[in-house]
Design brief:
Radius of gyration of chain B: 23 Å
Order of helices and strands of chain A: HHHHHHHHEEHHHHHHHHHHHHHH
Largest sheet of chain A: 2 strands, antiparallel
Structural class of chain B: alpha/beta
Oligomer: heterodimer
Number of strands of chain A: 2
Number of helices of chain B: 13
Distance between the termini of chain B: 71 Å
Largest interface: A-B, 77 and 84 residues
Largest sheet of chain B: 10 strands, mixed
Strand content of chain B: 15-25%
Shape of chain A: globular
CATH superfamily of one domain in chain B: Periplasmic binding protein-like II
Chain lengths: 504, 383
Amino acid sequence: MNFFDNLALGFGVAVTPMNLVLAFIGVFLGTIIGVLPGIGPMTGIALLIPITFGLEPTSAIILMAGIYYGAMYGGSTTSILVNAPGESSSVVTCFDGYQMAKKGRAGPALAAAAIGSFIAGTFATLVLMLVGPAVAAFALNFGPPEYFSLMFAGLTVVTSLAGRSLVKALLSTTIGLAIATIGIDLQSGVPRYTFRNPELLDGLEFLVVAIGLFALSEVIVNLCNMNQAVQERLEIKGGLWMSKEDWKRSIPAFTRGTLSGFFVGGIAGAGAAVASFVSYGLEKKMCKYKDELGQGAIEGVAAPEAANNAAAGGAMIHLLCLGIPGSGTTAIMLGALLMIGLQPGPLLFVQNPQFVWGLIASMYIGNVMLLVLNLPLVGMWVKILDIPLYLLMVFIILFSFLGVYTMNNSVQDLFLMVGFGVIGYFLRRLDIPAAPIILGMVLGDLMEQAMRQSLMISDGSLAIFVTRPISLFLLLLAVISITNPYWKYIGIGWRKLFGRSAAA
Amino acid sequence: MFDKKVVLFALFALIVIVAACAPAPTATPVPTVAPKPTEASKPTVAPTAAAAKPTDAPKPTEAPKPTTAPTVATGLVPATKGGYPNKALEIVAPAGAGGGWDTLARTVQRSLETEKLYPQPTTVVNKVGGGGGVGLAYIFTKKADDYELVVYSPPLIINTLNKTFENDYKELTPLAKLITDYQVILVKADSPYKTMGDLMAALKKDPGAVKFAGASSPGSMDHLAIAKLAKNAGIDPGKMSYIAFNDVGSGLTALLGGNVGFMSTGVGEAIPQVEAKTVRALGVSSAERRGGVMKDVPTWKESGWNVTYEVWRGIFGAPGMSADAKAWWGETLKRMSATKTWKDSLDKLQWVDAYADGDSFAKFLDEEFQSYKVLMTDTGFIK
């Protein structure tokens, strides 16, 4: 069967009324799940598994994939509106998204997030369809050493998050790396910094820290400016929709975000959160308006939102072509597939073509549905900002507590979140950026494990990082990324040197 | 002004929707009603669907009241003197949604409901963290509560021995051993090791030469299973090179990418890859050969090493459960393990039925405790 026959087969399966309804329910639920901090796509899908028992396998996966993508779309909404990330992968969206909202440009930010997600989702689906198995085979080249080098390169993003002082950013990164060491150490089984508290054995939840540092500290800041804040509101300025200028600036960012996100999060399997950080760093290096990033540049929303969706699509390639889950959410989906009697893996394309192509077709349909669902919602969401600030702050508190508690049903998490809220406030007063803490947390644990796994594989030799080509390439990329602001000085120095020697 | 109210109302509505669609993993007691006979044809859809589909399912408050259920269930439920059970049941899954413990807890819940074995509402609550320690601490706050159950597997014993847990699991009330899984040794399809013999010979020559992967930290199941095997074969487990990965997926990626020599994992996790022939299963830790895809895979015993390793899963009552309740559950779980819902779920999940009643389970746990104590002392995980 050729490609178009396959696609026709797929659409034939996906465009039944039942499957369309399920795809819609999936993306709708996913959007809600994404908007709420705490309930991630993982929990959402796990809870739906019992329902899928009564469904056809294809219908079941269509529902689950809808939730997965919906959550990726919805996660950005609260990041932009109230500085409280709905998912770990949309923490980065807070940086510029919330600044845009503060400037009255929440509408274009939300639109850019939705469109970026659409483009990236469609791209990932196309790649899955055209060259999925080849990409999957390449992905197997990423072992622990490559993983470490990728994380190392990711860590250089900190220079992009620095703001005014690189030293303060580095300080903040180290705090993040230190937080990442809390919990049972995977390689030795020894608990670190847990103080015999069982809830700390799994480490600190990433969203607990992020919501504390971003959302709650914002509330405290406003509390301190009570007199001004009372009647203030975040007015909407300009149009709700993206202007021509916005489009012009977003399209390159979409492209870069999609590609980098697909590579980092999808192929290499580093996850959507890391992918969004890397794409942000890339913007800081490559986009024309890099100085505006961090103060509400549309690229800072467009790129990471594209990246996290491309990463989610990439994870589906791992799941379908290798039968290896590339993310926590796809791991749950794998479990569900087994339960409904399907074996994901290389054989799936051959044994169940109607399933695979039906899913692929539904991924297109789901992405379109999400776009249609999300763009009109922009008008509704921005109305939230019409609430006077003092009420909005109450809402943020409510939202943060609800979300963090739902995550693990843990009261301790609430205390931790409040603690990080206070820490976040002081960091702001000291002008220390909070974002590198999150970067350190995201990368720290993975990086440490990957490094120690690599060293065990190589019997302790560091050479393993430079003798493997992909790893070497990534390390070089990291070096370039750190040093490129200084290249111009090398050039100047060279000319001076030459100038003198020529004169002498 | 009007606009503002509308928005506030919308926010409120949103929160209500959230509360309606989130509760299954939380403690919120959604009345999960025993399905009416007419719904029996699609039993699995009914209860949890109400919780997860705010769009088209009735809100929890609109669901039929649980008091209607006992009439349906009369005659099916064993009666007790004390009128047990007359309250809602909570099953604790000591890990997050989607994991093995959670799946077991929810499968038990669904079987009890579908087969109308429990006349009152049932919920599953996830207590996440500490390798199950958070769940254990939680159930210890429910002493003598006859309406609290919890599911566990070997980490209950392992984490007690290595002192991760603060509470002594022996105070729990073992109700039944339900299912079991086994460990399997996987190598890449083009690996030079064709049989268990090849691999063990290489390990004997140099225990550290062949690195192996597992999906949990050293001294937990994936590692201990191989340590047990190695010890039997006269190989020093301490000299072997175990590399821990976050999850089965990253371990498999490392195996398929040729970064490790072999992998130790559960049969359930291995089946998809074995079927696709991307990996070769060298040996399985069960006493007898497994069926299906694994039917050609010899046991460790057959290959000449007299070792078995079992990953059991069972269900417990809270510490100090009353004798009445214990007897009631002994009877009920036995019935449940024979129901169609339960057996079908086992098939789908590729779990092996290993039902044993409370007393034999308790005895089994004591044996397990002793054997882990010896194994973990010999391998240096406890001093």
